Amino acid sequence: MTATHIVFERVGKSYDSVKGPTKALTGVNFEICEGEVFGIIGRSGAGKSTLLRTINALELPTEGRVTVHGTDPATLPEDALVQLRRKIGMIFQHFNLLSSKTVWDNVALPLRVAGASASDMRERVGKLLNLVGLADKAHAYPAQLSGGQKQRVGIARALVHSPEILLCDEATSALDPETTQSILGLLRDINRQLGLTVVLITHDMAVIRAICDRVLVLDQGEMQEIGEVWSVFGAPQSQASQAMLRSLKQGLPHEVVQQLQPTADTAHSHALIGLRFHDLPAGQGLPLAALQALEVLCRGTELIHGGLDHLQGHSVGQLIIRIPAANLTDAETMRQTAGADTLEILGYVQSH
Ligand code: ADP
Asked: Could you count the other beta carbons within 10 Å of the beta carbon of residue 237?
């Protein structure tokens, strides 16, 4: 990986409110490298937004410090902070466009504020509207645009000062899945073409999977897990990541999920079990011998759902199997027999 860009050193943040202090961040300690797309994921209230905003000093840590290329924004005088913020673009969930201004004027505004000449503005705004695919919408007003187009304007505006960092605050949360993919594709292209460091926060695993190199899982203001996306997805270590990755259950038919019980009711119950195969050899499938071995151990093993995912050149397999509760053995023996990296009992269903 390339040079370190943003460093968080034991960052803590408390907010004072009428109800007393709220601890939003505790002991956050990690680094983001130059040119990477870094995702921060967590539930609502996890502290993602607070953490993102410490990078451009929209929020100041109450403990520890954040440095950007060695500079702590919290220590800068106002004019130096303005200069630093120009090197850190930001886009938002609700786009934050001025409805009374055209697309062209929305993008040009930060340049106008910085005192750019008319010809510089024309050249720069023209280039950026081309980059985001909106050259033909220069004279449109935000109300005439789709959500995806509005976010493209937001991206063009965030890039006017040729920033080194782009912060994305739930940038696709207001968009439908197809538009989300096109905006994420654009962010990936920009990251590659311009070499920008992209830091994004989201509650949506699909966003992380689509474009991030590494991910930090945040829960109740604390770091739960950090690593390359394929590794965190393939073998989530923390409870918070496992909870967010409960997507194994999402592969099941709705009726089955509704029937799931936490314990076996009768001798005729079946256990539904999720297996994850982390980092299978490149280009290889999941050997069926794994299931055959399990069938020898636990008679009546059936495959309910499964698939292989390819992430960052690694294959990650996920299977859901059903085993009669009476034939179960201990989880660790089943996991080893199947050669899986993790095994999780998702619940129990009545057999018909
Ligand atoms: P997320 O972005 O993950 O939803 P936030 O960073 O917005 O989380 O919030 C983290 C915690 O800090 C929450 O408990 C939230 O209520 C609290 N918080 C955020 N901003 C403020 C504020 N300006 N004043 C008081 N509490 C705040």
From this structure: 14
Closest alpha carbon to 7 in 26, 25, 32 = 32
Q: Do 94 and 228 sit in the same domain of this protein?
A: yes
Is residue 24 located within the same domain as residue 128?
A: yes
- Convert the pLDDT of each residue in 194-226 to its tens digit: 999 999 999 988 899 889 999 999 999 999 999
DSSP 261: B
> Are residues 47 and 97 in contact, defined by beta-carbon separation less than 8 angstroms?
no
What distance in angstroms lies between residue 9's CA and the mean position of ligand 1's atoms? 20
Q: Is 48 in the pocket of ligand 1 (CB under 6 A)?
A: yes
Q: Two tokens at 58?
A: 């929209």
Does the CB atom of residue 284 touch ligand 1 within 6 A? no
> What's the 22 CA to ligand 1 centre distance in angstroms?
8
User: Could you list the residue range(s) of the whole structural domain that residue 96 is in?
Assistant: 4-247
In short, whether 52's Cβ falls inside 6 Å of ligand 1 is no
Smallest CA-to-CA distance from 134 within 147, 155, 152 is with 152
Question: What is the rounded CA–CA span in Å between residue 156 and residue 106?
Answer: 9
Domain shared by 159 and 235, yes or no: yes
